[in-house]
Amino acid sequence: MTTVRYDRRELTLRMEGHAGADEKGKDPVCAALSMLMLTLERRMLDQAEQMLPTISRGPGRFLIRCRPGDSWERSCRESFETIFAGLTLLAEERPDCVQIQ
Fold it and tell me: Is the pTM of this model over 0.90?
């Protein structure tokens, strides 16, 4: 089971665990979750000077935090909200594999 935690106030998105829809390396749910988080990571790194991201990831875990200046907060929030919407859709479609907390 993958657990997703999104702290809107702190602009922090955390994902932990493996989806378990299939064996490791062949799990389509895990692949979808990873691609969403990698997309957010790329967005933050492409504008790192403005977004001031903290990124940590490894097997079964991903953390992205953003500390933008006032003029970049809206853009950062929109990015996080878009990715969280995709994660929420996966949780709705596969509640046996993804849990939003």
Answer: yes
Which pair of tokens denotes residue 51? 């977004």
End-to-end CA distance of the chain: 12
Q: Is the pLDDT of residue 25 over 90?
A: no
Q: Which two tokens stand for residue 93?
A: 């479609």
pLDDT-above-70 percentage for the chain? 100
- Reduce the DSSP state of residue 35 to 3 states and report it: helix
Domain 2-100, classified CATH 3.30.70.1490, yes or no: yes
CB 57 within 8 A of CB 15: no
**Structure-derived torsion over alpha carbons of residues 4, 83, 66, 58, reported in degrees to the nearest 10:** 50
Distance (Å, rounded) from C-alpha 63 to C-alpha 79?
15
Element (H, E) at 61: strand 61-66
What are the structure tokens assigned to 48, written together?
Answer: 């790192």
The single-letter DSSP state of residue 8 is: T
CB 40 within 8 A of CB 64: yes
